[in-house]
Design goal:
222 residues; mainly alpha; 61% helix; elongated; 0% strand
Length: 222
């Protein structure tokens, strides 16, 4: 697929998704920047459903960065033990909270460079926080976005999340809502374009999907 064809596909996706779900939202439950930050860190390699089960008691015990900064790693682990990699995440959460208190007066910084300096915050997490909390037009690439973008043919030979982000940004103009595309592709990957058993026959994107048409061609030759 040429770059021009991929650009046309991107804007076709915008048209389709805008009709189906004009205001996509994260499925993580949160009330403020602190809660979203915690939820985003916990969500790494963990389902949003699981995170949403963990966070109510967590936020009751640690309601803000100040209280979390005073916690020990073991105290935090006790509340997130059912999450993937609880020990690493507990270390990140307590260290992040202390840094926010010490360097940012208890408020989450909303600049990319400062976010990336926080423990547990990588590019994907930073982009999620910037898009939701600061309405920055950035694209966070998680496993769902990575998979769906490749299956659709939206990106070409992009081996890393950063490469996927770069290729899509090169297709979009300044007005394109990348922050919405992030949610659209996540939701599509979570409920339709699943990793192991994609629901291709009921997919609203199958007419333009590279993966679906590859499957059809393979069946024609069997």
């Amino acid at each position: 697929m040429t770059k021009s064809e991929r650009r046309n596909l991107l804007f076709w996706l915008l048209d389709v998704f805008s009709r189906e779900n004009p205001f996509p939202q994260t499925e993580l439950h949160y009330k403020d920047a602190y809660q979203l930050t915690v939820a985003v860190i916990l969500s790494a390699q963990c389902t949003d459903i699981r995170v949403n089960k963990i966070t109510p008691l967590f936020f009751e015990r640690f309601p803000d960065f100040k209280s979390l900064a005073k916690a020990t790693v073991d105290e935090v682990v006790a509340y997130i033990s059912s999450c993937s990699y609880p020990n690493n995440k507990a270390r990140h959460l307590t260290a992040l909270a202390r840094m926010v208190m010490q360097k940012h007066e208890g408020k989450l910084p909303l600049e990319e460079k400062e976010l990336l300096a926080l423990p547990g915050i990588g590019r994907k997490s930073a982009n999620v926080l910037l898009s939701i909390l600061a309405q920055k037009n950035v694209l966070a690439v998680d496993t769902h976005v990575f998979r769906v973008a490749h299956r659709l043919g939206l990106v070409y030979n992009a081996r890393t999340p950063e490469a996927v982000e770069k290729q899509i940004r090169e297709l979009a103009d300044d007005s394109f809502p990348l922050y919405k595309l992030h949610h659209w592709l996540i939701l599509h990957g979570r409920y339709v374009c699943k990793s192991r058993k994609p629901r291709c026959t009921s997919c609203i994107l199958k007419s333009r999907c590279h993966f679906f048409h590859t499957l059809l061609r393979s069946k024609d030759h069997t």
